[in-house]
Fold each of these.
Amino acid sequence: MPDYETFEHDVLVIGAGGAGLRAAIEASAAGVRVGLVCKSLLGKAHTVMAEGGIAAALANVDERDNWKVHFADTMRGGQYVNQWRMAELHAKEAPDRVRELEAWGAVFDRTKDGRILQRHFGGHKYPRLAHVGDRTGLEMIRTLQDYGVHQGIDVYMEHTILCLLKDGDRVIGAFGYERERGRFKIFRAKAVVLATGGIGRAYKITSNSWEYTGDGHALAYDAGTELTDMEFVQFHPTGMVWPPGVMGILVTEGVRGDGGILTNKEGKRFMFDAIPENYRAQTADNEEEGWRYCQGDKDARRPPELLTRDHVSRCIVREIKEGRGSPHGGVFLDISWIKQKMPNAAEYIKRKLPSMYHQFKQLADIDITEQPMEVGPTTHYIMGGVRVDPDTQMTRLPGLFAAGECAAGINGANRLGGNSLSDLLVFGKRAGEFAAKFAKENSLGKIRKDQVDIVAREALEPFERNDGENPYAIQKDLQEAMQNLVGIVRNEGEMHEALERIGNFKTRAEKAAITGNREYNPGWHTALDLKNLLTVSEAITRAALERQESRGAQFREDYPYKVDAFGKVNTIISKASDGSMLVRLEPLPAMPDYLKQVMEENG
Amino acid sequence: MKTATFKIWRGDAKGGEFHEYPTDVAEGMVVLDAVNQVQAMQAGDLACRWNCKAGKCGSCSAEVNGMPRLMCMTRLSELPLEKPITIEPMKAFPVIKDLVTDLSWNFRVKKKIKPFKPRPPDAPDGTWRMQQEDIDRVQEFRKCIECFLCQDVCHVLRDHQLHEKFIGPRFLIHVAALEMHPLDTEDRIEELRNAQGIGYCNITKCCTKVCPESIQITDNGIIPLKERVVDDFYDPFGWVWKRLKKLLNR
């Protein structure tokens, strides 16, 4: 039996994006020893890609904003299947979390009176997103990183966790490998926080990098706790569609917040055509009003381009399907038109959207101050994830916590732009706080060496197979299947086909073979990541089948309308004792009266 | 479909050599696409780092036809595809494997730089007031994506390997962002002159040329810092005044 290098911490945080870093900082501040595991180098996690901003009701730009409006916006955007308690905590605590970043060195754009500037974004009633041009995520992760490295946290860069370790029901650590030499390592901990982000690599067209293979979702599921809301995958309406190499790369919603419009090949602003009933009262019904809104006119209502992401994505798909798309299969997103409205438009665009300007100039030869962009939906985010207690972020397994994208509850059926960065901060902090508390009240558990050995042996099997299949090919086939069969528009027949294919992919993944040795071998890493990708793909499909209605990000062409009964339940995924995946519906917790009143007041 | 040949350096700390990989190229492809394609179809164990694929994370730094570049932002259409395209790891850092280098020195250097230390809040609610024009410069420096291409191309590090005496352009810019932060009260000038070795920079501006974020590293960052060091060291009145101001701020 081999020996593994073993590390001990009070709290182990898996994932070093916004949520993981914030959790590690909080736990460390509580006086416990913290280990932070990153799949890539520190500071490269997906948070760095976030562009638009952090949603927080600071009321710096519009004094009418407060937590109640933010709460109501979040619930409406999530089609009321959010966990109300998480939405409440999020709306109340986000402003403090943003101000804290400033105290740690973040440099947000300013209002004229020197306070943090806020911008408009889809689904938010007032300008609410604290931002730095269109590189807010970079500012956030760098601030947390530069603050965090001085807090005595042990950082393990380029390490991947393969499984959680348990002592009875309690989670007592994790087992994984380091990329550089391929050596296995045991991390013992009194509490573990999952902050691993999303699942975008399950789809072909995605804004997510290679890392986002649903690790935290699968680790939690395999350890025996529950996932929820997995059917709700956010397809961001505006990803690049041309050239093919860059397909899926994100184009920030900030383009629309700053006045960008969506048009079809006939030059028509098609978003005016289908404004949903529950947003009609707060949406502009003419182009002039929409422009006034983007310019800060407080009496104007927002343009329909700033409706929620699920809706905008579906409208874009409709235009493309009905033959009114752009030459490369998208629609047009045009910010250059504002030169009709202001004298120094090009300068304005470059200042507000510098990285979009750069991205299109360099990757597509498009000058966005002169020409429209071509955009289409891209897999961006999963609302579903590990089921957690709203206050403590603890899962049903003692000692296991989750925060950020890999946890679920705050977003319901659709996430509003900007609510992710604030979610990472609010619930990252809470997870760190309560994980530290749990660690102080508990001791280290007993590692079962035989459990670890089995995982290690399985992980090395791809090296031993001589004539197995290329893991990259299996990953590619899975991505195509999910894209085509469990994408923006879904139906029962295609999803049954997807389940059958996922079953085949599992068989193929068990025979994946790789070349080379254990040192920094991406082929091996791809083979190991397949297991998690398959788990989350199956969970998404089963949950989507169970929800026989269309709501938020889930659109079923065989059930194209909302069904009241489904508005009162969440889907829950768990692992049966025989290893098969179970899905069930569970009623939402009842919203207390004071919040019902908040909803009514902000209807 | 067109094909092109990529000569990719394969090896580790003990040594290595170029391997040629012919692969299909499609319109709009970037170098990273070609590397990922080679990885998926011909060399599964080819090591390279990448994340965002949009020039925002700074992971895929390498030397393409001898030029330090982000592979994700280098389009094939700007390269002479009739000849093989060479791709090598950055030279200023030890190789781990293939295109992956050991960047740990950078993280150690940064940790030694005195962190941000703000003045007390300006408003009773614990917030500060800053004017946009006073933070424009700091925001320019904070655009840095830590790709370390400036470190790679800096001859003090690349050729003279003075990693123990000089922190390199990336971290001079980091110090500049802290020193010019309107709220910061810390003093980093003494370290700049000694431990961080700002004097080693002789302003050849190679760092500025390769910066994918177009940060004016030399003109806006390093030169003003050099001036501060000089002022601090040779101007005793300035020295006293600055200390006094810092004390008052506290």
Note: DSSP finds 17 helices and 20 strands in chain A.
Amino acid sequence: MVSDARLAADIGGTFTDVALEALVAEDHRQRWTAKVLTTPHAPELGVLEGVRAVLAKAGLAAADVALMIHGTTLATNALIERKGARTALLTTEGFRDVLALGNESRYDQYDLNIELPRPLVPRKWRLPVPERLDNTGKVLRPLDEAALRALVPLLKDEGIEALAVGFLHAFVNPVHERRAAAILAEALPGVPVSLSSEVSPEMREWERFSTTVANAYVQPLMASYLGRLEAGLRAMGMAAPLFLMLSGGGLTTVATAARFPIRLVESGPAGGAIFSAHVARQRGWEKVLSFDMGGTTAKVCLIDGFSPQASRSFEVARVGRFRKGSGLPLRIPVIEMVEIGAGGGSLAHLDGMGRIQVGPESAGADPGPACYGRGGTQPAVTDANLLLGRYDPESFAGGSLRLDVAAAEGAMARAVGAGLGLEAGMAALGVVEVVDENMANAARVHAIESAKSYEGRAIIAFGGGGPVHGCRVAEKIGVNRILVPSGAGVGSAIGFLRAPVGYEVVKSLYTRFARFDLAGVNALLAAMSEEATRTVAEGSFGAPTQETRIAYMRYVGQGHEIAVALPVRELGPEDVAAIRAAYDREYARFYDRPVPGSDVEVLSFAVTVATVVDTAEPVAEPHDAPAPAPIRVQRVRDTATGAVADWAIYDRAAMPPGCRVAGPCIVAEAETSTLVGPGWQCRVDGLGYLELEHA
Amino acid sequence: MDALDLIQRQIQWNRLIAVVEEQAQTMIRTAFSTTVREAGDLSAGIFDLQGRMLAQAVTGTPGHVNSMMESVGHFLAKFPAATMQPGDHYITNDPWLGTGHLHDLTVVTPAFHEGRMVGLFANTAHIIDIGGLGMGPEGRSVFEEGLYIPIVKCFDRGAPNETFFDFIRAGSRTPVELEGDIYSLCACNDAGARRLTEMMAEYRMEGLDELAAFIFDASLKATVAEIAKLPPGTHRAEIRSDGYEAPVTLKAAMTIGADAITVDFAGTSGLSTRGINVPAAYSRAYSCFGIKCVVAPEIPNNWASLAPFRMEIPEGCILNAPRPYPVSVRHVVGQLLPDLMMGCLAGAVPDRVNAEGASALWNPPLRGGSQVSGQAAETEDFEVITFNSGGTGARPGKDGLDGIAFPSGVRTMPVEATENVAPVIFWRKELRPDSGGAGRTRGGFGQVMEIGAKGDAEFAVNAIFDRVANPPAGRFGGGQGAAGWVGLDDAAGTVLRTKGFQVIPKGRHLLLKLPGGGGMGDPAARDPALVAQDVADGLLTREAAKRDYGWEG
């Protein structure tokens, strides 16, 4: 019996991952996965190939698929490589250079040769239009329609393919933007128009215009890609609806995705976070840190109550070594996470003070780390792990790649060892300690910025490097429990299958608690709820939905808001005090001292409507089972103490639920190795996941 | 030291830098003043028991680089380490013991581990109001410039000093924000101390002495090695600032030695009667920053890495103002010092310095309502400031940056946000064509800003602008950046003074034209395609392109 077959495809930089799940018996759901090379020139080809491969493995036909979910880095790549549409920005006269000025600061204080991100729209296509609203939305200067029409010949001559309209204070009153859109649609049929009041209706002109322009910039490309993909799937015989993964962790229809493609930029990492959230739910763990370490970057994400943390700001296409402030700002719903340049391919060197530095430069897939033997001469993190004895050179990546120890040793000695007087093994220890410290620091900063702590938290480690580095990162941030799920190599695609169909609407409405605008807030929330519900209904097929409402609040005068949940109903006068009290609690929980005598203000509201899909059946505790014998021992150097000892190596496939092994040891599998450090215990849980615990 | 110790010391150094960054982040997230939370005008650092700085957060304010570093010693002189208790927090805004004006509060907090004091955390932030005349040049002594806080305890073993807070609340136009910012300064030092204790427990450290010695040794060696790469010799430079009552000349003679760089400021103008005077610590900070950007940008700031840069500033010159001279807007002169340092370094390493830029921020403090117009006021009372920048100087291999802060690293606020906190309308804020100095690489473009009150009501500006009579110079054949301009939007082009309190009449707007950066190298050598692009972008008029570059397109 086959029913309910759900298919997910995630296009990454190197690989396109496809996962398929279907009920194969009354109570048994099975999963098949496929990994194919990404085809950058026509990404749909890779997806179609992967879909064919996974269907063949499952013995299903395309017509058997009930639902397909897709995430892609296509929009991100277009922004990074500047390969989007010829885009023009129509903007308030006097504010032509909002995108160029940004926040007028440099992300690196000491680098005189700093390069700032170039606006997506050059100045000659940033076109001022006479009009002006004040901060309440009152018209100070009417829209000069004749002046707008006079720009049309220029737009035609320049071959403009996408239009963005960004007027000051349009998020309060979109009247001028809408009128401009109507005029442009009439004069330039077929050219898509993105309005700042629709794409990102929030205060702060730089961030709003930047988001709007980015949306316009990727729109033609994404629309055409989605069209080709749908046609390809139909040609294959698939009738199932296609959904797109959003950066915020929900799913949406092709139609909505084509209107707001900028909301898709971070879909892959979002899938990874949802994967972690699902794993946390399976285990009933309320507080986890998702730790996904791949080839070039590591991503950490705090997950409380099985929901990844939401955020509204994000930076794409950073030009300065992953430095904050060196990218294009986007104000869209995203899953809050920190991404740093720390992966298996990250390269190590010594700085002027003889300090070991790792990343963000990466060896990439080609030439790759020195031990790949493909011409890499600089030591990467993978080389360091090899020299510490953590990998078996014969069986790396399922034995598909024989690692060259001598090449790794030579590179490590040259770039790190010689300058510090260390032999290659200790130099490798230094490199791994530095990269682990970098990731731990990123995790600490993420917690500070999220007003959360690591007390009582567990790590969910995946990606090629997560299970290798998990123990030491955990020790550094004071976490004593780690879970390594199965399927970690295609985590994002599996995450797509767990994502709800959902949509988030964010709107600014300023109000102070001292004179709370109850009627205004209720009217706004009702309208937002209606918009979100309508959008979700296009793809939920009547499935039950859940609504959440959030207010972003702060003390009057402060700059950073705290999210406070609101009841999902019309608010009454009695709610105002309760919401205020909830804010004080949230604030004091983290910043120790509530501030006496301050009023609180609300800046904006978010309403999310989503289907309820992710449920996890309770899993029975497995009975104790005997551990298999180690498949071999390896000489491994411990990075905390520098001690070299024989560590047992176990084959994960041979470890039944309920069995336990004690660290130090390594649990090997084709896609990764789980390092169980000294003082750690590893147990296989009822789901087949590895649970590591520190005594 | 064995191999593992060496690696662990490196890790601990990294951790200290992360700890102070975390300290600064906590400040930004909890601060009330827009100057801190939006603009990033703050600083944070950790110190050993001798008051030597081990690490400092890289924030928006080079002016705090040495000045905060020196301040901890002043705290220890008044309150010796042996008398400090857990939960104590000490505070001052003394311009000569802190960071150069009353608007900067510095809080110092002892850090304890296993019952023993192991170090100190310090944090400086620019708060929005401290009473007195308000931010501006008009004071004739520091006593007019605001409330003066000597080094006192603001928290005693965790309990707030209520007498202190009473004075604070009574003396400021924004008492809630001021009190909130002080709480925030203390909270962020606490956050730093917590992380320090965690690290010391993890590595079983009893004190910071060994780590300090390691950091200082590596930093000093690296800094000296960078200095040794420079050709030795003495180089001179001079810059003119518009000043307040008279132009100001800044003069420097920089001697590059084998292991130190010494700058002598002899010949610099004397003191002003108004608040553009600079306390010595602030002069050292911006001078050091200017040198470090060129000579050793990668080396983290600490006591040892800053030690090889020595400043000799004669008493009684405008860069070494004694108490009680007014110092409120010392940045307007102090921020020219990196240009002066690069002028000297141009003689030694011409391929590593920039041309001069707008450099001093153009921050118009705006005030309206009854404090300007009395009973005739047509708007509610307001007091607001925004941070804005002209163009930076051309670089050896790249153009200058357009409308970007340098040397200051502060951020500007969105116009939409400013218009939400005060009844003002920004009618224009965009790049200023033809303002970048011509050159093989050109200077960054300045901006044009036009500001009115809502309903075109009367309001006032307390001007603190420079580079109007003395535009940024080019280097090696590059042209000057455009001079700044301050005036009204009327047909006559009424000019306003560059410094001081002035009323913008009803119906009129304040018009500011921010300077562009100087150019570098012969304009004739500039790639014609780049000239054509500036013309197409409307940043260079055809006339200017023809005049400056011989462009015939």
Note: Residues 205-235 of chain A form the longest helix (31 residues).
